[in-house]
């Protein structure tokens, strides 16, 4: 049996690696994607452009405007003449919003009265608007604190919140993105390779030769899984190396834990790819089927939005998503040095998903054999 499996594995590797274009597809795209998506797929809000409608003729509005100009979050402050231009400014999306300083701003500050600011934000960009609102509130709060401090000790705040960020002290978003990208890119490649492999053999007519050979269903599944698993190891190693040594991502956990999780995860998505390939007759159908699975898997994995923010039925559905569990392991190993006890909480669902996907793929292949 093992000689037949070894022969099938060698045959699969020869088919995949003998084509120069296929070798390029296996090596180049994952590396390019890890570099490109690391900077493109960010949810950070930086380089903000905002308008300033300053109706105040006093001296106190200038320091406030200067604080916005010196803030690292804002790159440009555009002067706005009146409310009509403010409306056009937001409608044409020249900036995310406009800060309106009333004409009595300086007079009220000097008189010890509350001075109001109007902030008009572009509600079409809901997430960005909320984040920018927080940035602006921070600048205004610091401005108010300095004013209170200038009036004497009675105006000083009695308590101060000191924030310390664990695991990513400087809140470098790249360190969060890289482990997630490794999992997502590995998922796509892990599905595509086995799906295209079987579909290509169907097109060439060689798949029927496998079905009439002495190979059992188990031997076919192992022979199809092992080459994709080896290629997945290669791609994972290249992306991890690029993330650590080229992009500077921290790696504080266990390498054994990382590759154990990767092994089970790759096997689970290979099962999905084999299941898709068992339903498809052409490579075009296999590619379409892979993306039908990949896009929802990324969306409900917790990468773009927290799973806790999703409806309960989507949270339940995400339990069957292998990307959710491997992301927890990869982020835990890269950033937190999690223990095996914590990793097991994500590892055993991956084992169950792997058993189901490979089992279903094997059942479909056994039907073909019959």
Automatic annotation (TrEMBL):
Keyword Cell membrane: yes
One MF term in the entry's GO annotations: ABC-type transporter activity
PROSITE patterns from the UniProt entry: ABC_TM2
GO cellular component, one term: plasma membrane
Subcellular location: Cell membrane
Domain of life: Bacteria
Keyword Phosphoprotein: no
Residue stretches making up the ABC transmembrane type-2 domain: 129-368
Bilayer topology term: Multi-pass membrane protein
Keyword entries, A-Z: Cell membrane, Membrane, Transmembrane, Transmembrane helix, Transport
TM regions (residue ranges): 21-40, 173-196, 229-250, 256-276, 288-307, 347-365
InterPro entries, sorted: ABC-2_transporter_component, ABC2_TM, ABC2_TM_bact-type
Family affiliation: Belongs to the ABC-2 integral membrane protein family.
Protein known as: ABC transporter permease
Species lineage: Bacteria, Pseudomonadati, Lentisphaerota, Lentisphaeria, Victivallales
